[in-house]
Design a protein that fits this description.
The protein is mainly beta. Helix content is about 0%, strand content about 35%. Strand 1 and strand 2 form a beta hairpin. The chain is built from 1 helix and 11 strands.
Length: about 190
């Protein structure tokens, strides 16, 4: 396990994982704590993976399995609107990063970070990654575990939220998205 900042935990495995398919949840199904889930789709509308989420004490836990990405580091962020219907246009309808406190972008930015900022995702040579993130200070539903400690920032509001994977790494400081480039995958989570 690699600790990334005090607010995040990260575990990555990119080798030997089964392919993600619409009929299977791969390694994600073994989690008995799932409160929400969503499929990741590419700009062509094809399924690329799956994400599961849970309210946890102090934040939100998410587990991601994805394939068909270019090898290397990719920025990944939580976006304000749970809509991925405009993939061909680059998933712009998902809006900006979750940022209820009007901070700047970046985990290493002294004026940051937005609540939608996450560590980068590393994709292996086979185009696959499996990762688990914890993001402090958020909750899925305000009535769930840890909501009082996480503040009034529910992700599952009236328009839900989206998880966006970008083409390039996030440098965690450049505005507005850390130089992460195009949006290449999206998961819409309904409110």
């Amino acid at each position: 396990m690699i600790a990334v900042s005090g607010a995040f935990g990260l575990t990555v495995s990119a080798c030997g994982k089964p392919a993600v398919s619409p009929s299977a949840n791969t390694d994600l199904a073994d989690a008995d704590w799932i409160d929400a889930s969503a499929n990741l789709t590419g700009t062509d509308g094809e399924m690329m993976g799956r994400i599961v989420f849970a309210d946890a004490t102090g934040g939100v836990l998410m587990r991601i399995a994805v394939e068909d990405l270019s090898p290397g580091w990719h920025g990944i962020h939580l976006h304000m609107v749970g809509d991925c219907s405009d993939g061909a246009a680059g998933f712009k309808i998902s809006g900006d990063h979750v940022d209820p406190e009007d901070h700047q972008h970046g985990l290493v930015n002294p004026a940051g970070s937005e609540r939608g900022d996450l560590p980068n995702l590393y994709v292996g040579a086979d185009g696959r990654a499996t990762v688990e993130f914890f993001r402090a200070g958020l909750n899925l539903n305000p009535s769930e575990v840890g909501a009082a400690a996480n503040g009034p920032f529910p992700l599952l509001d009236d328009d839900g939220f989206a998880v966006i994977i970008h083409a390039n790494a996030d440098d965690h400081s450049t505005q507005p998205i850390g130089g992460a480039g195009d949006r290449v995958a999206c998961a819409a989570v309904a409110g």
